What we know:
The chain has 181 residues and is α+β, with helices and mostly antiparallel strands. Helices cover 23% and strands 22% of the residues.
Amino acid sequence: xxxxxxxxxxxxSGTGYRGGTGSRGGNTASRxxxxxxxxxxxxxxxxxxxxxTSVAAGDRHRGEEPEHTPRLWHVTLSVSGARAPLTEVRRAxxxxxxxxxxxxxxxxxxxxxxxxxxxxxxxxxxxxxxALRLWGEHxxxxxxxxxxxxxLEVIDRATYHQRIAAGYGxxxxxxxxxxxx
Length: 181
């Protein structure tokens, strides 16, 4: 085999680590490793490679969720302010829903509204940051009233489904779209 340093065995992972003695000498047992034991804990013959374990792409250890993997978060954003004509509030929320089809349900009155939707984000902080910008960033383009955010709830998908199963929270049969309170 070309490209393999003397005293090391080639491995599929390309690391050249055997778990025993290598080109640097010494036994890994003195460094807290497995020493010259085999995969089942018994002695390993001189020169025998330690079996490698591979993990397919996308596989995770049980209970492990990498930080960079996006998750789904259920967001409820509540806004409130001075009274505005109902027809204008409805039209603005419909425009917001048209511009951003991720919106599930919007409920409104002449002085407050609630928007519910799913957000894909790395963590709760990212999902909340996006939600807190939503109203202000789309106020001009959708013609939203100059209301302020008065409430925000961000929960993960599992918590949302637990609440629904326990009979808490909005019923999943709530129609999608823009509706008066």
